[in-house]
Amino acid sequence: MAMDRREVVQTGLVAGLAACLPSSPSLARAEAPGQSGASLGVCYYPEQWPRSYWADDAAEMARRGITFVRIGEFDWSLIEPEAGRFDWQWLDEAMTTLGRAGLKVVMGTPTATPPKWLVDRFPDILPVAEDGAVRNFGSRRHCTLSSERYWAESRRIVSAIVERYGRHPALAGWQIDNELGCHDTVMSWGPVDLAAWKRWLVKKYKTIAALNEAWGTSFWSMQLTTFDEVILPVRAVTETAPAARMDYRRFSSEQLVAYAAMQGALIRAGSPGRFVTTNAMAFFPDFDHFALGREVDFMSWDSYPLGHTAEYLSEESELRRYARTGHPDVPAFNHDLMRGASGGRAFWIMEQQPGPVNWSPWNGVPEPGMVRTWIWEAFAHGAATVSMFRWRQARFAQEEMHAGLNRPDRKISPGGIEAEQVHRELVRLGPLRPAGRAPVALIFDYESVWYAKVQPQGADFNATLLAFAFYSALRRHGFDIDFVPPGASLEGYRLVVAPMLAMPRPDAVAALAASKAVTLFGPRTGSKTPDVHIPDDLPPGPLQGLLPMKVTQVGSMRPGLTEKVEGDGLAGHIVHWREWLETDLPALATFADGEKAVVAAGRHIYVAGWPDAGLLDGLVAHAARMAGLAPIALPADVRVRRRGDLMFASNYGATAQPAPAQAGARFVLGEATIAPHSVSAWRIS
Ligand code: GAL
Fold it and tell me: How confident is the model at residue 37 (pLDDT cuts 50, 70, 90)?
């Protein structure tokens, strides 16, 4: 465990690591890990390589500036090959080897991969797809978190691992499970799920009359007389009650968070002084990440910019343009969301794309320079650690086409060379300051994301992508953005953006009313009650106090259809979704048919539809001016982010671009001309 002190200081690790070792859960929440640190990590699978490689691998990791090594997250059948028979020897040796090289271990709990013997013994732990088919053993995440049996088995294996390694000197912290909910497993649709769902409904509604009222069961003769009659809102002849489906999403999200909290409690009890995190996924809609973030010391997420761009964006021209760089706002959106879910404190990248992945429809090779740019962008957004996935490309199995920092022949890969460059740059820069607070808040609302899935009313209405559109416009103007959940205090923010707040609760309305910020509201805000009913006085329902208007009619629009919008300094189109307003408020812009498209009630602005990029640029510029915020003029494909006393600018484009720096700025990374696919950083006052 003897770590070279010079190296520790140089990578800013002393502050980071000390803060990583809270002595109690409450202290852990107060002192976020690595706030002012910036270090590198790697995901390692010793079980997939001969033991004769391990010591060399560990020494090489340390030499290349790696501080943290995540292991173990899929190892259940290797640790417990038969029920109750544990084989710790190999993992003991791996821990010792890594520790001897001065590396800090992050141990994953292996509950994403229940072994075959466990599945055979308790087949009802398997998840069930919407069509009723059992989702079988053979890959991973073959478990439903509704299963009390699976909870018991999870407790057993987590307790055993915590007991074995909880106080190991090489252990820095824990990753709960792996990508909870991945592969569409947050919701499962079998008998075990039905039982858990009924329990949840009894707790929520107390009486069946209350449930009938909320779900609107007088429609289509859906009344229930007892909770026993409840079935899963799936596999009916046609659409099931929207309120029931909304509840099923809430139930499934809460269950996932409770499951993670159960593991977190076991870890904290048996592994004092170690941090607890879990790795989330980009744009993942099916559970509330703010709620999960409250159960861990900080959130981590897995950043694969090429795969995420390919999977979530749909415009063919953008997909081609960013095929080898990723869209410039895709990693940033998720960094800001995870920092928000970490309560504004430092977060981690637990897995960073090092080269081509294997799981998207087409898997390109990142442009030279992008791996380094992605790592620096994560640090710029407040990441404490960026851990690369994986140390070495596997020679076998599902991910053998996925790059690593090293090639299968044990030689360094292009991504490995770029990560090593970042290490040298970190050493040169010294510790980074905390990210600090942004002037702009974006209210990101999981209930709206779920609601838009339950009742899209337009085949391509996706509330996450609506938020992404607003976010991108803010970034094109050079603003730093904090993500906050609805109901969080908005104090101190100059500009607040609420892309969609479908069913605002009293705390969200109160926070908006108390805020002094200029606020820009997107469509469908206040459009439903939490039970998915239309508000008595029409939308925006409880926000009518701030926005005196009624939305009287809405219509969705096929791809390619647009409605022109024009106003003073505002010009563009509405796409996907249009609304009709009844209001005396002045119009900032109107539709071609004379109807109001953008209205303002003092500092509250509402846009009656899904604005395209042109209209959003105008809206953001207008709102920023009102808020007294100065935008930064940025070349296309360049984005900026401040962290402490540094300003970072990344260039996702293929041509060199000027950095938006003050004359005489002192550059600490790159230069005043940002090279293609590269990053520059300079000191700001
Ligand atoms: C992540 C996952 C890893 C690995 C990786 C490949 O989603 O957590 O285990 O599968 O993707 O890109």
Answer: confident
Averaged pLDDT of the chain? 94
Residue 178: CB within 6 Å of ligand 1? yes
Task: Provide the 3-class DSSP secondary structure of residue 29.
Answer: helix
Q: Which CATH superfamily is domain 638-683 in?
A: Golgi alpha-mannosidase II (2.60.40.1180)
Q: Are strands 440-443 and 550-556 parallel, antiparallel or unpaired?
A: unpaired
Q: Is 75 in the pocket of ligand 1 (CB under 6 A)?
A: no
Task: Count H helices and E strands in the chain, helices first.
Answer: 21, 26
- Domain ranges in the chain are 39-191+274-429, 440-627, 638-683
What are the C-alpha distances in Å from 442 to residues 445, 493, 523? 9, 10, 15
Largest CA distance in the chain: 77
Q: What is the pLDDT of residues 232-266, one digit of tens each?
A: 999 999 999 999 999 999 999 999 999 999 999 99
Residue 43 · residue 351 · CB < 8 Å: yes
- CA of residue 102 to ligand 1 center, whole Å: 26
**Looking at the predicted structure, is the pLDDT value of residue 54 above 50?**
yes
How much distance in Å is there from the Cα of 303 to the middle of ligand 1? Answer: 10
Map tokens 């009802």 to a residue.
124
pLDDT of residue 36: 56
User: Rounded to an integer, what distance in angstroms lies between the CA atom of residue 207 and that of residue 201?
Assistant: 9
Hey, which bits of 3-120 come out as E strands? 39-43, 66-71, 104-108
Tokens 């002094």 correspond to: 516
**Residue among 60, 73, 153, 179 flagged as catalytic:** 179
Cα distance between residue 390 and residue 70, in whole Å: 9
What is the average pLDDT across 605-613? 98
Preceding amide of 149 cis, omega within 30:
no
SS3 494: coil
* Atom 9 in ligand 1: residue holding the nearest Cα: 178
Q: Which residue has the higher pLDDT, 26 or 198?
A: 198
Q: Please report which confidence band the pLDDT of residue 481 belongs to, taking 50, 70 and 90 as the band edges.
A: very high
Ligand 1 pocket residue status of 278, Cβ below 6 Å: no
Residue 275 has pLDDT above 70, yes or no: yes
Q: Distance, CA 398 to ligand 1 centroid (Å)?
A: 10
pLDDT of amino acid 390:
98
Three-class DSSP category at 683? strand
C-alpha 352 to ligand 1 mean position (Å): 10
Higher pLDDT, 34 or 269: 269
Per the annotation, the verdict on 595 as an active-site residue is no
440-627: CATH topology: Rossmann fold (3.40.50)
Distance 178 CA to ligand 1 centre (A): 9
Of 3.40.50.720, 3.40.50.450, 3.20.20.80, 3.40.50.620, the CATH number of 39-191+274-429 is 3.20.20.80
**pLDDT of the residue at 2:** 27
7 is catalytic: no
CB 543 within 8 A of CB 504: yes
Of the residues 295, 351, 377, 420, only one is catalytic, namely 351
**How much is the pLDDT for 542?**
98
Pick the residue whose CA is nearest to atom 10 on ligand 1.
399
Give yes or no for residue 389 CB within 6 A of ligand 1. Answer: yes
